[in-house]
Amino acid sequence: MRKFIALFMLAGILFVPVFANAQDAPAAAAATEATPAAEETAASPTVVDDEIVAEEQSFHQVIKEKFIEGDPLYMTPVLICLILGLAIALERIITLNLATVNTKKLLAKIEDSLSSGGVEAAKEVTRSTKGPVASIFTQGLMRHSEGIEMVEKSIVAYGSVEMGRLEKGLVWISLFISLAPMLGFMGTVIGMIGAFDSIEAAGDISPSLVAGGIKIALLTTVAGLIVAIILQLFYNYLVSKIDSLVNDMEDASISLVDVLVKHKMTGK
Q1: Domain residue ranges of the chain, discontinuous segments joined by +
Q2: Are 105 and 86 in contact (CB under 8 A)?
Q3: pTM
């Protein structure tokens, strides 16, 4: 369900400019019809119209043109890396934000429950709270009767499991960060090979012969680097978010052990 939501959000981001252009088209047509007749007598109407069209060209249209000029055969794999990488990154962002809890508030609730209802009441609090910190607390409380050492070992072991779950999907984002520039460089090499094949076939070096191949080479390289940069930003944000959650888990685990010792809830 979370992945579906992330993909839905990504599709909205990609297609909003298209819908915006479709809505702007009738307004642009109406504005053109309402132009005074005096403007039609300008000295160079064609040149002015071309300049206006060039200025009004949207970012989405420019990207689409460059995608076509770079050859969809080489640009499509780079675009797929971007879409999949963003989908995974958005799903991870949503998951990590949902996993974030106020550990101080949770510890206060657990301590109150231990004072009023014992360990079972504290377990109810942790089980009703989402997130890795609450899951670790539940595991620690379940081993309270086996002694403080077993509580600590249980917290450490289950903490490693929760950390692995938090890092789920990062390896795929890292893969797309590495793969996108490689695909771009592959398009570069293929484009340069095509340019030299044209020179060899013509027996002469002409700018018009090599321009197409060199343009494909440069556009695919730029596309791959842009995708890698975008995904790298998301990757670094996710790593910092996971580090923050892990630190909270470690601090909260130490606090839980202290609370159990304080209330003498551990076995001898």
Answers
A1: 58-268
A2: no
A3: 0.68
